Fold these 3 entries.
Entry 1:
Amino acid sequence: MLPRPHRLRHEKDFARLSVKGRPMYGPFCILRAWKSGSVPSKIGFVASGKIFKSAVSRNRARRRLREAFRPLLETVPDGYDMTFVAKPEVLKADFIEIRATLVHLIEKLPVELARPWKRLPKPPRSRKGEIGYAKQLGVPRPPPKPAQSKAEGPP
């Protein structure tokens, strides 16, 4: 485990990163980062149940990423929130290759976050998700969708 001050622990922080985080792609993981101003930087590791079907493989993927990242903790600049989303290749990869990928992603982090977005990320599909997305981006709530009554149904 990472030291407690460096851990991303709350569900809302992971959700904020999924909306506001800038993705950077590597062969073994996806880094989603956002300049939050937190000192020290907060880091989380995610292994999706859609990709890793068994709990054993999810936990193993997170452990491998976490242990490859641990020596690099001092090289991470302050002021960022980050999540590393594991890809299936992380289970078969050599540990040195995983660490080299993490080093590369951390090095390009400040440069990538300084660049403007090419396009904003797509909002979630559900109405509740749209409202939460609007809150995260700081824009007004979307207007309510007109309700179709049963009497006015399609002909």
Entry 2:
Amino acid sequence: MVLTVIALELLFVLLIVCLLCRAPYGVLGQQPMGSARRTEWRQAQERAELLLQEVLAEDEYRQLNRRGYLEVASPSRSRRTYRVPRHQGQVKVFEDGVPVMALCVQPVESIPDGDVVLMHKLMIEGNEDEYLRIANRFEPTLYGFIAIRPRGRAWPN
């Protein structure tokens, strides 16, 4: 009996490792990629990284790689800073160094992480009010962030 449980657990672990090895970076649950699509995705990631290096200042790019996030100063609120993660995740908003909310804005289709970082930076700097309008908001709690009810809409039942 004990050997059966151990064998099933080992099989489960091997299945997860197999799935993780087959999935494109950061994406599970999508269609399996053939080698040509994997090559295209890798090339898209490389192009996005080059564009990221071109657009960001040297110190911004260094910060992104060292800390795992890019700090974008609010163009309209002097004490507000947005922390855009290097890889998929919520953008954390700080005022005077204190977290005030987290935001979620995602593209409709999968795009490379470098392009997502630039999307956030350009949206914040270009039209911060529109960025805040379309973002899903989460407020800080002792245990992380929880969703805030969208303005003008009721939660679905």
Entry 3:
Amino acid sequence: MLALLFLQFALGMWVNLYASIPQLAPGYGMMGIMFAVMYSASAPVLMLHIMLGWLMAAGALVVFVLSLIHGKSSVIDLSAVGLVSVLLAGLGGMYFLFSGGNNAYSYLMALAFVSAFSAYFSALAYTG
């Protein structure tokens, strides 16, 4: 998860600095946003960032289930924080696209990244 978080952060920073987020009319659904993103100039990196986010959500869920099997309460708590943080970052990303690039949602993604990275790093220290 730490490696995926680092890669996701690097892609997110590229998107934040260089991608143009399409301004959409109110009422666009998820598919409308995806089509608008696919036809933008920065589509490959942005789509990779989105797909990696879905992979990380699945990975965070797997880490949480494995921590439940492991049974150490501190690792369970930290993996739960990591899971919630990854989901919050994804939610922030979705609203970032819906809003046409509102920086408040970018800030939410950054805070969720720091939280997830800290939680997974700490969980790694507890299991080591």
